[in-house]
Amino acid sequence: xxxxxxxxxxxxxxxxxxxxxxxxxxxxxxxxxxxxxxxxxxxxxxxxxxxxxxxxxxxxxxxxxxxxxxxxxxxxxxxxxxxxxxxxxxxxxxxxxxxxxxxxxxxxxxxxxxxxxxxxxxxxxxxxxxxxxxxxxxxxxxxxxxxxxxxxxxxxxxxxxxxxxxxxxxxxxxxxxxxxxxxxxxxxxxxxxxxxxxxxxxxxxxxxxxxxxxxxxxxxxxxxxxxxxxxxxxxxxxxxxxxxxxxxxxxxxxxxxxxxxxxxxxxxxxxxxxxxxxxxxxxxxxxxxxxxxxxxxxxxxxxxxxxxxxxxxxxxxxxxxxxxxxxxxxxxxxxxxxxxxxxxxxxxxxxxxxxxxxxxxxxxxxxxxxxxxxxxxxxxxxxxxxxxxxxxxxxxxxxxxxxxxxxxxxxxxxxxxxxxxxxxxxxxxxxxxxxxxx
Length: 438
Hints:
This protein is an all-alpha fold. It has helices at residues 2-36, 40-54, 66-69, 85-98, 104-132, 137-149, 151-159, 164-179, 183-196, 203-212, 216-234, 236-240, 246-250, 268-272, 288-298, 305-322, 333-344, 350-366, 379-390, 393-419, 427-434; strands spanning 260-261, 326-327.
């Protein structure tokens, strides 16, 4: 009788220790990547913005900060293009770091700390959502491990320095609050996420559709909270801090007048040797507007239940992504998180889920971003690597096109699966996914 009484606690201790080791491994990897790497353009811009906001200057007016950072790479910088929440957070980080050190490595890591914290929180949030949706504990844990150690998340977050994960966390929390009837909390969280980056914008009409079938009054209440919050997060800081919004207003359509990256217009750089869309080509930059309208018409009968809310949200986000003329690889993190939850629940074929994040990760290699992550600690390697990749420029651009084609196909296939009444694939595939056979 003693054997089982001893074995059960030991098994529990092993499971706890195993979870702790996985968490510590993820933290160690993220801190190491956050310290030594950082995107040459994005991180310099983030550092400069933090300094300007901390010193009560307008971050939307570019300045030469070579003397401040004692680094020539800060000489010709453009101004940041994000709305106030991210610049304000950067200002707080700079003031905290500058109070005890001016080391760029420490500052580089400090900017990544909110991203790392959001990555950890996202892993636990995904696990909690799956458990609440009656998913098996071990399957939820498998998703938790994936989120902690996923190469896509580690590369674009701690290594690159992009903060899309913050938008992902706020969006998922918004959907959870919406399901539980906490309308004001959901609206504020979604507005804050969109204020950080507008990649979650298509979730708002889905939320309205979800509420409209229940109560038009609730939908109106939600929209009012959302509008007021968005104004507060995006407009109020300009008023309170006396920032001139002219530069950012002038560039409001910057992402709609260029073509390339992971979008269907990635061929444009090879064809015209530029990102800028000439003449009336800029109308293609607005293609996502009618595309979202058509998508909404196709699901006008409503959104029923939390799983359907997740599916339709993913479908609308993909329609938005697939019809934009410019799509940055880090933006796909929002797709990854929703697709992982749905694949774990059997609402999405697992092979679609894996393809959705593996293709963009491969794409970034041919988009010449890896050498740019070396700018701070390995500048000579960065320059040599970029020069070498430039010799194969035509091949790189062709490879990007080859990767974007299946990304578009898989993306639209996923949209169809999300908008179906029920997934058409067999339950046996879901079982194989949960047992690790897929």
